[in-house]
Amino acid sequence: MYPGYFKIIFAVLIWSSWGIIIHRLKLPPALISFSANMFGWIFLAFLGFGLGKGEEIRSGFREIKTIGLFLLLGVFVSLNNVLYFQAFLYTTVANSVFSHYLAPVLIFILGPLILREKLEGRAFFSLSLSVLGLYLVINGPGLKITAHDLTGISLGLGSALFYALVVIMFRKLSHRYSPLSLNLFANLASSLLLLPLVAGQIHLIFEPGKIIALIIIGIILSGFIPMLYISGLKEVPAHHAGILSYMEPIGGILLAFFLLSEPIGKNTVFGAALILGAGYYLIRPKK
User: Fold this and answer.
1) Which phi-psi region, left, alpha or beta, contains residue 117 (left: φ > 0; alpha: ψ -120 to 50)?
2) Nearest partner of 242 among 108, 114, 136, judged by Cα
3) Which domain holds residue 164?
4) What phi and psi values does residue 53 have, to the nearest 5 degrees?
5) Domain total for the chain?
6) Computed over its alpha carbons, how large is the radius of gyration of the chain?
7) Torsion sign over Cα 96, 100, 101, 102
8) What count of Cα atoms within 13 Å lies in the side-chain half-sphere of residue 283?
9) Confidence of residue 287 (pLDDT cuts 50, 70, 90)
10) ∠198-200-201 over CA atoms, to 5°?
11) How do residues 46-88 score in pLDDT, each as one tens digit?
């Protein structure tokens, strides 16, 4: 079993804290995303030069093609975050989460076309179980699709597409650039692209206690953890990484239970068991 699987699982479980963070900080989600990206690339720049990777980082600014690739990656990262956060404003949490986490289905379809990955029967089975598990975890029977919800669902599906493209692009570029450089430029490009959107809100991050929290979030959630994820993607097919991302909602539910006292129903427990079972079936050693 490749260590990359454990890197992916650990990364997505840490990312599951985003919901709690947005709930606690009480700042516009786009501003949180911008701040995390900004502090993330600043931290990675110091880390990179401290580890003697200055020339590798500088080389990313020299080739027009490389700059274009990183800007495109930044566009995908920004649109993934902004569309997902906006979806919550137009429809229910259940609709938003379910539509967003159709991203692994898109990765499953696009991975073989773009990355020439070989699909396996067990991956298809694990994906099917995970989608069913997610449906139950977010109280699937309560999902509704009305004319009023279509805008939010469309935004969620848009975020799913860009989430899929981010994973595929990370996988494709992970063999050409180090996780540190790739993550640094992704954060830099995303923060620059989000700047016009949050320019009038930046003063809010300097409220007491929030600037320190955002720096820590940037270092951990936008700095260390994406590097770990990208490192895992070097060893794991993109569509496998996509399926394992269904662990993220489970982590979010557990954090909400322990930190916010949100209840966990029977459907949620059964759905989580399906997702965990699907993940184990996917990564278990072949006989």
Assistant:
1) beta
2) 108
3) 3-283
4) -100, 25
5) 1
6) 19
7) positive
8) 21
9) low
10) 65
11) 999 998 888 878 877 777 677 888 889 989 998 998 888 788 7
Express each pLDDT in 153-177 by its tens digit.
Answer: 899 899 999 999 999 999 988 888 8
Q: Would you say 105 and 98 are in contact if contact means Cβ atoms under 8 Å apart?
A: no
Question: Which amino acid does the sequence have at 190?
Answer: S
Cβ contact 238:86 at 8 Å: no
- Please check whether residue 278 is in contact with residue 126, taking contact to mean a CB–CB distance below 8 angstroms: yes
H, E, C per residue of the chain: CCHHHHHHHHHHHHHCCHHHHHHHHCCCHHHHHHHHHHHHHHHHHHHHHHCCCHHHHHHCCCCHHHHHHHHHHHHHHHHHHHHHHHHHHHCCHHHHHHHHCCHHHHHHHHHHHHCCCCCCHHHHHHHHHHHHHHHHHCCHHHCCCCHHHHHHHHHHHHHHHHHHHHHHHHHHHCCCCCHHHHHHHHHHHHHHHHHHHHHHHHHHHHCCCHHHHHHHHHHHHHHHHHHHHHHHHCCCCHHHHHHHCCHHHHHHHHHHHHHHCCCCCHHHHHHHHHHHHHHHHHHCCCC
Mean pLDDT on 202-219: 91
Tens of pLDDT, residue by residue over 246-270, are 898 888 888 878 887 777 888 888 8
CA–chain centroid gap for 95, Å, is 18
Q: How many CB atoms lie within 10 A of CB 221?
A: 21
The model's pLDDT over 93-114, given as tens digits with 9 standing for 90+, comes to 677 778 888 899 999 999 888 8
